[in-house]
Amino acid sequence: MKTTRHATYNLNYHIVWLPKYRQSVLDNEVANRVGTILHEIADDKGLEIIDLTVQPDHIHLFVSSPPKHAPSLLANWFKGISSRKYNHRYADNEGEKIRWARGYYAGTAGHVSSETVQDYIQEHKEGDS
Fold first, then answer.
1. What is the pTM of this model?
2. N or C terminus of the chain with fewer C-beta within 10 Å?
3. Distance CA 113, CA 129 (A)
4. Which residues are catalytic?
5. Could you give the CA distance from residue 49 to residue 38 in angstroms, rounded to a whole number?
6. How confident is the model at residue 111 (pLDDT cuts 50, 70, 90)?
């Protein structure tokens, strides 16, 4: 469990996205550079990357985020900022630029038993009495 000033949360998102036209451009040094940039974005935004796999034709990101960030915002941050940073730092000509396909997949992950939820509610109910 993680906390902010006003929330206790366990929100983990699995986000998957592709290079435009599903080209296999994310290999070797490109994959390493993109991975580094994704970690920079997470650090800048106060997110935790739980797991990351950069495949030649897609990226799997498993990230934990506070409840104030919608999954669509996370996808937009990681896709938009990563392509801008990569293209600014490494792409000398048009053919080397990273461009992402428009869509993405986002799913939630995590497991809390109903007993855990009930215990949490009871703990806070007793504290308010």
1. 0.84
2. C
3. 25
4. 120
5. 9
6. low
